[in-house]
Amino acid sequence: MAQLVREIMIEATPETIWPFLTEPDQLIEWHGTVAEIDPRPGGIYRVFVAGQFRSAGEYVEVVPLEKVVFTFGWEEDGHPIPPGSTTIEITLHSEGDKTRVRLVHSGLPDDAIDDHGKGWAHYLERLSVRISGGDPGPDRGSEGQ
Amino acid sequence: MDAALKALAEPRRREILRLVWTRELPATDIADHFAEVTRSAISQHLAVLKTAGLVTERRDGTRRWYRADRNEMKKLRTFLDEYWTSGLERLRDVAEAAQHDKEKH
């Protein structure tokens, strides 16, 4: 199983960042367009992104101001990542007046790994991330250039 | 890009892409690889992959040959790689704006 890790430093406290991970209205300010979330273990995670994709899963662990873990996949027939099949863990580490946000997407399919497919496996991992990220927003990204 | 992502959501299309990843193959050889799938279904999968820009098609008499368009894949990979990063950058932007608002009040 492949995993992907991304980190970013944010000049804000965990108290400020936390609602952007756990409140639907604030979540969609950076991720997706409609969010139906119940951030407690066993609670639903459902976020619509880019119109045609519906991501869904279930919260596994929620530690206020520190960590949120949920399963993740796509509600689409034949999708390589069905709901609940992968896990996303987002952690906040306070560092002075900044916060390090770390995102780990694990359990990504690696069925693409084969004799001549190293590049392809790498590609599929990135694909999973693109899908998990959802709508890139009209004023961001470099697609179509 | 969405066309490519949708094209890749189907397991057989991913398998086709693997087959033609390092070599060009005629449609008949590709179809032979899938014993349980009809030729016309494979033709449709190839058409989807071609429309999405993931494979190129070459005609040689009555045969059609396919291979993965790795330049296109590379572009897509780059895009996807940047994608998640940009998601977190959006989080940073909105969180820093919120922090700024808090400190003003």
How would you describe this protein?
The complex is a heterodimer of chains A (145) and B (105). Chain A has helices spanning 14-22, 24-27, 118-133, and strands at residues 2-10, 34-37, 44-49, 53-63, 67-74, 86-95, 98-108. By secondary structure, chain A is an alpha+beta fold. In chain A, strands 1-7-6-5-4-3-2 form a seven-stranded antiparallel beta sheet. Chain B is of the alpha+beta class and 105 residues long. Chain B starts with a helix and ends with a helix. Chain B has helices at 2-8, 11-19, 27-33, 39-51, 70-104; strands at 25-26, 55-60, 63-68. At the A-B interface, β1, α1 and α3 of A face α1, α2 and α5 of B.
Instruction: Identify the overall geometry of chain A.
Output: globular
What coarse outline of chain B follows from CA principal-axis ratios? Answer: elongated
The average pLDDT of chain A is 73
Mean pLDDT of chain B: 84
Radius of gyration of chain B over all CA atoms, rounded: 20 Å
Beginning-to-end CA distance, first to last residue of chain A: 32 Å
How can the largest sheet of chain A be summarized?
7 strands, antiparallel
Enumerate the strands of the largest sheet of chain B in spatial order, edge to edge or round the barrel: 1-3-2
CA radius of gyration of chain A is 16 Å
What is the H/E order of chain A? EHHEEEEEEH
Measured distance between first and last alpha carbons of chain B: 43 Å
Along the chain, the helix and strand elements of chain B come as HHEHHEEH
Low-confidence stretches of chain B: none
Helical percent range of chain A? 10-25%
Structural class of chain A: alpha+beta
| Relative strand content of chain A | 35-45%
- Describe the main β-sheet of chain B briefly: 3 strands, antiparallel
Number of strands of chain A: 7
**DSSP summary, beta strand count of chain B:** 3
Portion of residues within helices of chain B:
55-70%
* Oligomeric state of this protein: heterodimer
